[in-house]
Amino acid sequence: MEQVEVLVIGGGPAGMMASLSAVKTGARVTLLEREARLGGQLIKQTHKFFGSYKEYAGVRGIEIVDKLTFLLKEQEEKGKIRILTEAELVLFYQEQTLGYTYKGSLRTLKAQKIIFTTGASERMLPFPGNDLPGVYAAGAIQTLMNVNGVLPGEKYLMVGAGNIGLIVSYQLLQAGASVLGVVEAMPRIGGYLVHASKIRRMGVPIYTSHTILEARGKDKVEEAVITVVDNKYKPITGTEKILKVDAISLAVGLNPLGELLEQRGIKFCFIPELGGFVPWHDENLKTSHPDVYVAGDLAGIEEATTAMLQGELAGLVVAKELRYGNLEEQDKINLITQRLKEFRAGPKSEKTREGQIKLKNG
Amino acid sequence: MDNQNRKISRQLTKSGIPTKTDLKPFLPSSKRKRKGAYALIECFEEIPCDPCFSACPFKSVKEFANLNDIPVIDFKKCTGCGLCVPECPGLAIFLINEDRDDGKATITIPYEFLPLPEKGEQVWALNRVGEIEGEAKVVEVKTYSKKNHTTVVTLLIPREKVLTIRHFRRKDQNER
Ligand SMILES: Cc1cc2nc3c(=O)[nH]c(=O)nc-3n(C[C@H](O)[C@H](O)[C@H](O)COP(=O)(O)OP(=O)(O)OC[C@H]3O[C@@H](n4cnc5c(N)ncnc54)[C@H](O)[C@@H]3O)c2cc1C
Ligand code: SF4
Ligand code: SF4
Questions:
Q1: What ranges do the domains of chain A cover?
Q2: What pLDDT digit, counting tens, does each position of A97-111 carry?
């Protein structure tokens, strides 16, 4: 059976950084990505990134992917890393034996250390009519629009005023669509206010303390019914409003994608602040299995910046455990831990901080 | 001036539209307004972001003690070069010039829509909720950021509207 030193599963920002830092420390890496290209969520991010200029802030997501891909290809040419795209991990047996599909066949391999960076999947929302054609997850719309160049509707209702809802609304406007409103059940906007101000001045109303009641239409979405909700998120009758839209975009959160780890018996905790069921992990991203690590959205829903920092950290720690590197590595680990802490110091990361505490307490 | 931990209005947190009170601490003195263009940063909440600081060649944006700090401009140092405008991922920085003899002002807006307007074109100037405030003339269109290609468009507007006009729409474009 094929033997590898470090196996990274998922080629998003976390997986790319994990691979790079493990390779740079001296380890040999195999990276599996189920899509045809690397980049994960970032390939559809055409907007400029937040964060520190040290971690690519002000650069567009898609351009970050190009930079990281270039660095990975350099290592590939040197024979330090093997990158397999259209390779999906499907099985995680006893010990460190794993099964993945590649070019139509199932292959197995054994890995000394494994870093899972499989990201997250988008949540749906239950309401009458949510199965009508024209109801999409926001990320799916982004892929259609920014990767495939297809706009699935002309007039949209966005559900959710977190960063994803606000950013995808903006991108819809850029693509020439109209957004008739953004509804948010919470009494305040969840995403960054600068994103909200931006779409507001382009004429998009933001309805806080509102939710979608129903999608109506014969064969596809023709209108959406929205309503005011009280402070217990219960719809208030008589406040309904009809919006003539042909598409509804749901940006109501993400769930970490960890089924394979769960099947393998790795410990999970339910922490709503981190996105639901997340694999338990320590400060160095090690799970309850001593050879299995996690990073990025899988470890708790956050952002690309933290996903990259976590990936970098996991890659370093794993390489160090395999006795690569030298004393300098510990300094690097401390530095990344410090940067993560600084990034999460603001009020917008309160939930993440609470989640981290719960995680610590198991 | 301490803009950290300042309370922001409910209106802003519910709609994305700042009130006069939200804006006030971020404005330059009336004396400074008469001394050339200045950058106005409309970023009121602590978020982990700092390109405005790194973009300014004159160190006019105060160094952040923490990445989450609210940006504060030292208007004495700001030369009005406008380099920060396209670098802000929140599109929250505007360059304003009220120092003109004709009683008008210019506002430079980051603009990420295609096709771009042309110099000399008349456009609809929009306010903070996207309503038309009147016509405005495009006096400059520049794409100078190598990092992210955001274009900046300068409009000639009435001086009393420098805090009102925040966007524009080309006349042949539909309402969104
Ligand atoms: C609309 C939107 C806007 C955003 N804006 C910002 C922003 O401005 N700033 C910011 O910092 N962050 C932003 N983010 C968040 C950011 O994109 C994510 O936090 C980040 O991509 C998470 O990285 P990741 O590597 O953990 O996961 P992902 O990017 O999701 O990557 C996971 C990868 O794993 C692969 N994979 C999954 N399962 C398998 C398997 N079994 N086998 C092989 N491969 C597998 C997937 O195909 C994918 O490529 C935004 C997200 C969205 C949706
Ligand atoms: S306009 Fe120029 S000098 Fe003023 S803050 Fe922006 S970059 Fe600095
Ligand atoms: S770059 Fe823009 S969004 Fe980021 S902190 Fe500065 S003003 Fe705010």
A1: 2-121+254-360, 124-250
A2: 999 999 889 999 999
